[in-house]
Structures are given as structure tokens and as C-alpha cells.
Amino acid sequence: MIIKLDDFSPMHTFDCGQCFRWERQSDESYIGVAGGKVVKISAKENVVTIDGADENDFTSFWGKYLDTERDYGNIKKKLRAHPLLDKAIDFGSGIRLLRQEFHETLISFIISQRSSIPKIKSCVARLCELYGEKLEFEGKYYYSFPSVETLSTVSEADYRALGVGYRAPYIVDAVKKLYSGELSEEFLLKCDTATARKELLKVHGVGDKVCDCVLLFSLGKYDLFPSDVWIKRVMEESFDSLSAKETGESLFKEYSGFAQQYLFYWRKYSKDENV
DNA sequence: CGCCAGGGACGAA
DNA sequence: TTCGTCCATGGC
Fold first, then answer.
1. pLDDT tens-digit series, residues A11-44
2. Phi, psi of A240 (to 5 degrees)
3. From the centroid of its chain, how far is CA A204?
4. CA neighbours within 13 Å on the CB side: how many for A223?
5. What is the DSSP letter of A147?
6. A157 touches strand B (CB under 7 A)
7. Contacts (Cβ under 8 Å, ≥6 apart) of A14
8. pLDDT for position A272
């Protein structure tokens, strides 16, 4: 499957901290699993190749996942009004915000709290290997992210065995709420951002940061500006701001989530060539 | 308020 | 190499 898509770089998009299941290959393509399917994605200029997907898969899943309908050129143009964003956008010009599955995003970001990206990736990978569905692609095996139904049978001790430590009971709580319908994607989608936050914060182990990441990366609440240590740093340095989240959201409004990703990627990864 | 949890990454010594 | 610190959340 080959498509034309502007403003997209697999590296910028898959390595900017929003997802944990894409692996860079020696040829700079990325292999990943989403929606129960494995694909390999590569891009030359604005020509994007998705190996392992046909047109049907694209219209039913990958198009939405890659946020292909959104005009990132326009978003970037608006954000470039801020001098700092201008720099950040130059550095991560191919970032697109993925529309990831809700339960996967929630559980992954619960695991992510107070941890590092390599560690998160290994925990999520083990979770998938143990409880996901085995998939084959180009002679290798991959695993889907397990369903809520499957996870509802997994115990706290089993989660602990994955290496998630004290987060194990949080995952149990999240899965329980998902499985019972007490927490539902459909409901959160209908809510305004503030109401959705209030609901999601009821899950054990979900604080401000995890909450904002989940709502931004899976439900498209783009007016959120998740603030981790890198974002706090950049806001403090450049905007003299003590409360990164509030400042970001009031500056960038409905583009907060996009601004956050450009700033995060730039502040965390550009240092070498930037000082 | 301060400290801890469970563990890997990362930077300093 | 080893040591200390970090990370984001809830419980105490």
C-alpha cells in the first residue's frame, strides 16, 4: 500500500514518545503492531509505503491511526508564530499525533509513570508476548496488544512478574473499570475535555500527566498539554513559566497537544546539535 | 509536608 | 565501575 502524505516522518512520529510499540529497522523503516495488525512503514519525501496493509486496511484503520486527514501544514503554520515553536517544528517537522487504541494507551501510560522509555517498551512487549495474539510478518513473530477481556483474567502478581512493580494494582484497577464499562471510550469521547479528565482521573495510578497523555494520544483531546519533566524544563527556560500545563494550554489552545509534541521532541533529542 | 515503592537509564565521580 | 538521582503517582 502506497500513499501520499505530507508532514510525516516515521522517525519523528514513532520516536517522539507518544507510542511504545514501533521499532526502527536498519533501513529507517519502522515495524509496529496496532489494531491487531503488523505493518512496516517507510517514507521518502511525501510517499509513504505501508507494507502489510491493503486499501481496505488503510480505510478501516491505518488512515485514522496515522491521522492522515489532518492538515499539519496549517497547524505548524499557526504554531510557528511562537519563535520557540519555530525551532522545535524545524527539528520535528514530521511528527503526527497517532490515534491509538484507548485501552492500550491507558495501560501503557500507567506503566510509563516514573519510568523511562526503554523500560516501558520492554514491559509492554512482555505484556503483549504473554497475553496478546501471535502475528507473523516477514518471517518473524509479533504480538498484538491484549484485549480487555483477556486482561480481565490477569492477576496483580502476573503483572508484577512483567516488571511493572508497584503499578501492578493500578493496571488491575484500570482493566476492571474498562471491562465493567464503568470507564468507557464512547462516553469520554462525548465529554468535553474537563469532564473527560475528571472521569479518567478516577482510575488508580492515573494522575495529571498520565491522564493528559491518554486523552491526547487516544481520544484526540488536542487542547491538552501533558507536562512531564522535559516539558516543564522547556517552559521554565523559555517562557519563564512555573506551571507548564496551564501556560501551554492558554498559549496554544486547541493546538496544545501538537505544540507539546514538537517541544518535547526538540527539548529531549536536539541537545547535541543545539548547544 | 516528606518519603517510599521497583527498576532501568543516565550522568558524575 | 559504582554511586546517586531521576521519573509521576498514591499511600502513609
1. 999 999 999 999 999 999 999 999 999 999 999 9
2. 55, 35
3. 20
4. 8
5. P
6. no
7. A22, A24, A30, A32, A41
8. 56
Asked if residues A102 and A143 have their Cβ atoms less than 8 Å apart, the reply is: no
- What's phi and psi for A4, nearest 5 deg? -100, 125
CA angle A52, A56, A59 (to 5 degrees): 105
Query: Global pTM?
Result: 0.97
Q: Would you name the residues of A annotated as active-site residues?
A: 209
Q: How far is the CA of A264 from the C1' of B13 (A)?
A: 30
Q: Is the C-beta of residue A126 closer than 7 Å to nucleic acid chain B? A: no
Distance from C-alpha of A188 to C-alpha of A197, rounded to nearest angstrom: 9
Q: Calculate the angstrom distance between C1' of B1 and CA of A112.
A: 26
Angstrom distance, A44 CA to C10 C1': 46
Provide the mean pLDDT of chain A: 96
Angle between helices A208-219 and A102-112 (to 10 degrees): 150
Protein-covered nucleotides of chain B (CB closer than 7 Å) are 5-10
DSSP symbol at A145: P
Query: Which uninterrupted H or E stretch holds A15?
Result: none
Q: Which residue is closest to B5 in terms of CA–C1' distance?
A: A166
| pLDDT exceeds cutoff 60 at A274 | no
pLDDT digits (tens, 9 = 90+) for A217-265: 999 999 999 999 999 999 999 988 889 999 999 999 999 999 999 999 9
Please state whether strand C lies within 7 Å of residue A165 at its CB atom.
Answer: no
* Residue A138 identity: E
Distance A271 CA to B10 C1' (A): 15
Predicted confidence (pLDDT) per residue in A106-137, tens digit: 999 999 999 999 999 999 999 999 999 999 99
Which amino acid appears at position A243 of this protein? S
Residue of A50, A49, A24, A47 whose CA lies nearest to A39: A50
Which residue carries 480487555 as its cell?
A: A148
